[in-house]
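Posting here for the record, re: nicotinamide-adenine-dinucleotide.
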Amino acid sequence: MNIQPENIKILHIDSNHPVLWQQLEEAGFTNEADYTASKEQIEAKIAGYNGIVIRSRFDIDRAFLDKAENLQFIARVGAGLESIDCNYAMQKGIHLIAAPEGNRNAVGEQALGMLLSLFNNLNRADRQVREGHWNREANRGHELEGKTVGIIGYGNMGKSFAKKLRGFDAEVLCYDIKPGVADANARQVTLEELQQRADVLSLHTPWTPETNKMVDADFINAFSKPIWLINTARGKSVVTKDLAEALQSGKILGAALDVLEYEKSSFEHLFTDGDIPAEFQYLLTAENVLLSPHIAGWTFESHKKLAQVIADKIKAVYSGEPKAAEQEKKVTGIGGFFFKSENPAALKEWYNKHLGLNTDNYGCTFWWIDENGKKASTQWSPFAADTKYFEPSQKQYMQNFRVHNLDALLEKLKQEGVTIVGEPESYDYGKFAWITDPEGNKIELWEPIDEAFL
Ligand SMILES: NC(=O)c1ccc[n+]([C@@H]2O[C@H](COP(=O)([O-])OP(=O)(O)OC[C@H]3O[C@@H](n4cnc5c(N)ncnc54)[C@H](O)[C@@H]3O)[C@@H](O)[C@H]2O)c1
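Prediction output follows.
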C-alpha cells in the first residue's frame, strides 16, 4: 500500500508484547492504546483510526466495520480471524492480518505434551503421589511408537504438531478439506481412512459451520478403535455431552482439552453463575481427562513471536515505494509452460535425446535465480491431449505464473471482476489458484513456498 506510516493511526485495544508498539513507532506509525473502553465506546471513535490491533476483546462485526470508515487493516494478535466478519471487511478493502506463525510451535508442543501426559497418566499419578499413594500398576502407560495419530485440519497448527511427532515412530495421518496439504510429516487420507486407522485424534480445524459440533456421538463411533482425543483447536467443535458418554463407555480412552465448548470468545471466566452442566461436571472428575484454559498457543516465546509477526506484517502492508512497485509487478516469472501432447512419453523421450532435457513424470524443471537472489524454477510439461487440467479452456497451452502474494492478488482480481476458476489449493511446494483471461486462456497462479526450493 503506497501510504506512508507517518499518516497511519493505529488503535491498540489489547495489550501485547512491547516489541509490537516499539517497532511500529520506530517505523513511523502513530500508536494509541485503549485497553478498557467498551466496544460501543471504541465504535464511536474508530473512524479516527486507520488500523486496529486486537486480540480477543470483542467481535468485529458489520456494525463496527460500518463505523470504521478509515480503517485500512485489522491485525489480530493470534492465529484465527473468527471474531472478525472477514468477508465484509474484505469487501471494504480492509487488510486482515493474523499471526499463526507466532504460536504454531507453542500449539504443536502443547498438543504433544498433552498426549504424552495422557498416555503416561502423569496428572493422575502426580495427584496420587501427593496424596501418599504409590500405584505403579494402575498407572502403567502407553507408548506412542507404533500408534497412528490422526490430525484433522492440516494448516499451521496441524503441521506443527505433526513436526513434533517426528522421531516417535508413530504413523501420522491428516485429513483436510483442502487437497494436497500433506508434507513430509503426515500422509493425507480420507476421513474414513483416518477414522479406520487412528489411535489418537487431534483437532486443528478452525471453527466453521462444518466444524461446529463436528465431534459428536456419530463421529466418535465411526472410529474403528477406541481413541484418545486432543483438542487444541476450538471448543465448540466437540459436543461435550457426547464426549463424556464416550469416555464413560470407553470409546474414548482419554481426552486432553485446551479449549472448551463453553468458553467465551473473550476468554472470560467459564461459568459466572456456577451452573456447571452435568457433562462438564463429569469431565472435571474424570481421571483420564486433562484440561487447560486455552493456553496451547500461550507461551513466553509466542507472546513475543506473535507481536513480531504482526509488526512485520503491518510494516509490509505500508512498505513504501520499492515494495509498491514490486507489488505492482505481481507476477515474478514464468512458473510453467504446459501444453497438450498426443504422446507425452514419446515426446519427453525425444526432448531428452535431442535437447538433453531431464524429464520426470511431469516434464523438466529449469532452475534459475530470481532478482532477489533466490532459487526459482520453471516447469516444462507436456500433458495428455485429453487432460482436463486446462478446463474450462479448450486451448492447447496453459500458462503458469509465479506470483508474490497469491491471497492479496486473488483479492484484487476478484474486485476487478476477473474470472476465477475453482478454489485455491495448497501443496507442499506452494499455493495455487486459476483464472482465465478474456480469450479463455487458463492461467495458473503459483506462489511457491521458498523452503521447498532451497
Ligand atoms: N489453543 C490455542 O491456544 C490455539 C492457538 C492457535 C490456534 N488455535 C486454533 O487452531 C486451529 C487451527 O489454526 P491454524 O492456524 O492451523 O489454521 P489454518 O487455517 O492454518 O489451518 C486449518 C486447516 O483446517 C482445514 N479445515 C477447515 N475446515 C475443515 C474441515 N471441516 N475438515 C477438515 N479440515 C478443515 C483447513 O483447510 C486448513 O488447512 C484454529 O481453530 C485456531 O483457532 C488454537
